[in-house]
């Protein structure tokens, strides 16, 4: 049994593998006991989703609640809104199904008006594998292109593929070509997210390949695509190639041309802030979870360090050239980070401009005021602890933030408490 509690997607998968219902505290305790560390950590109880007492932070309290939008999803792993739209979204399910949703706004209360299958793929679902990420092309309204990250059945690899559908109706979705395939030595730490940056490039989050301690040292090996953030061009593609390499990618000796940054363990969700900076939440192993502002050529440190702390060796590790996180928390507050988005909506004015992030296992949600410099430190405020297993956040065109509750199969929206 793999006792690595720290990966979000490992926890997600093992809920399914063990057949445990995460809807009740007894099952959650059983999950923790199955994986280890039961004496030091217990997941939240089955309180109703809603507002909770807020913690006092450096800038006062911000009351939020998680308002239900819809339910009935089967281990949801990602939610993406159609570009420049508020009420149409796609939810991915771990077992390989993608659902297109149309939401209805009834006096400010949202519900799901329609739900239809967008596409399905045959995937491996062992441990952290499955259908993991989707990104719409920035010009989706013109070209109907989107991109999907999944683990095809029986292949032991990550595949990034291009799909196409009718941009108006989202009908007729089909896989048109494979862009990238990366062999996975183990079944966990697959990463899985895709996102287009303000530069129009496609960013691909790759975990270190799995197990514990990064046994193949992929995190510090820039020649491999594992343990890295990749950046590719899907529009300017040389003849005979599947994708282009951006001219301003790091061109260091020994670095794979796709690699944007290295030293990641399992980047479970990243976003771009209002200044276009890449904000990455990386899942830790034994002690710490972290958030970093990542620039081209950065080395986040895994597996020399876990967040800002020596990992191997535990003391006196080499720190030169490693980039510190802007924020971290230890495992008394949670054990598996889920990255979110910078809030830009109107429902919770106190969150304006803050980066919202959560812990999958503890249900804690924080708001971070990100520093002006990538090497600075974030000002974090705990918004509360909720009885949810947040596997992903989504953001619509008006800047409102949504969350997926993996355990109960729900889509939720962050609103004022």
What is the CATH architecture descriptor?
6 Propeller
Report the structural category: mainly beta
Helical proportion, percent range:
under 10%
Distance between the termini: 41 Å
String of helices and strands: HHEEEEEEHEEEEEEEEEEEEEEEEEEEE
Helical run tally: 3
Structural shape: globular
- Average pLDDT value? 88
CATH fold-type name:
Neuraminidase
| Unreliable parts | 1-59
The CATH class assignment is Mainly Beta
Sheet having the most strands: 4 strands, antiparallel
Task: Provide the gyration radius in Å.
Answer: 20 Å
Number of domains: 1
User: What is the beta-strand fraction?
Assistant: 35-45%
Strand order of the largest sheet: 1-26-25-24
CATH superfamily: TolB, C-terminal domain
SS elements, strand count? 26
Please describe what this structure looks like.
The protein has helices at 8-18, 25-35, 140-143, and strands at 64-70, 76-81, 88-93, 97-106, 109-120, 131-136, 145-150, 157-164, 174-183, 194-196, 202-206, 228-232, 259-262, 267-272, 278-282, 288-294, 305-306, 309-310, 327-330, 337-338, 355-359, 364-369, 379-385, 390-395, 401-405, 410-416. The radius of gyration is 20 Å and the shape is globular. The chain has three helices and 26 strands. It has one domain (8-416): TolB, C-terminal domain (Neuraminidase). Strand 2 and strand 3 (88-93) form a beta hairpin. It is mainly β and 417 residues long. The protein has a four-stranded antiparallel β-sheet with strand order 1-26-25-24. Strands 2-3-4-5 form a four-stranded antiparallel β-sheet, with no helix packed on it. The longest helix has 11 residues, at 8-18. Mean pLDDT is 88; it is low at 1-59.
């Amino acid at each position: 049994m793999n006792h690595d509690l720290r990966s979000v997607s490992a926890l997600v998968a093992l809920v399914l593998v063990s057949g445990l219902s995460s809807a009740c505290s007894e099952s959650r305790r059983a999950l923790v006991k199955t994986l280890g560390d039961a004496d030091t950590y217990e997941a939240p109880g089955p309180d109703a989703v809603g507002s909770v007492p807020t913690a006092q932070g450096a800038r006062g309290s911000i009351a939020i609640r998680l308002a239900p939008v819809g339910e009935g999803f089967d281990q949801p792993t990602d939610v993406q809104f159609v570009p420049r739209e508020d009420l149409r979204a796609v939810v991915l399910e771990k077992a390989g199904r993608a659902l297109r949703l149309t939401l209805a706004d009834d006096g400010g209360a949202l519900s799901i008006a329609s739900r239809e299958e967008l596409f399905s793929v045959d995937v491996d679902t062992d441990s952290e594998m499955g259908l993991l990420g989707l990104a719409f092309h920035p010009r989706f309204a013109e070209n109907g292109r989107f991109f999907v990250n999944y683990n095809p059945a029986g292949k032991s690899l990550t595949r990034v593929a291009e799909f196409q559908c009718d941009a108006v109706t989202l009908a007729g979705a089909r896989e048109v070509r494979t862009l990238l395939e990366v062999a996975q030595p183990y079944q966990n730490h697959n990463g899985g997210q895709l996102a287009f940056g303000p530069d129009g490039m496609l960013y691909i989050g790759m975990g270190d390949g799995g197990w514990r301690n990064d046994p193949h040292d992929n995190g510090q090996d820039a020649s491999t695509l594992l343990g890295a953030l990749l950046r590719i061009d899907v529009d300017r593609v040389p003849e005979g190639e599947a994708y282009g390499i951006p001219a301003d990618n790091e061109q260091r000796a020994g670095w794979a041309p796709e690699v944007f940054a290295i030293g990641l363990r399992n980047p479970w969700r990243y976003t771009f802030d209002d200044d276009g900076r890449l904000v990455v939440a990386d899942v830790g192993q034994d002690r710490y979870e972290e958030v970093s502002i990542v620039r081209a050529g950065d080395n986040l440190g895994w597996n020399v360090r876990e967040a800002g702390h020596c990992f191997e060796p535990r003391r006196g590790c080499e720190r030169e050239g490693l980039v510190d996180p802007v924020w971290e928390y230890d495992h008394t507050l949670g054990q598996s980070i889920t990255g979110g988005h910078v809030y830009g909506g109107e429902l919770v004015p106190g969150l304006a401009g803050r980066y919202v992030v959560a812990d999958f296992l503890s249900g804690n949600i924080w708001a971070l005021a990100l520093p002006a410099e990538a090497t600075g430190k974030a000002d974090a405020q705990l918004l509360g602890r909720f009885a949810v297993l947040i596997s992903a956040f989504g953001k619509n065109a008006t800047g409102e933030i949504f969350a997926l509750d993996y355990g109960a199969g729900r889509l939720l929206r962050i609103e004022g408490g």
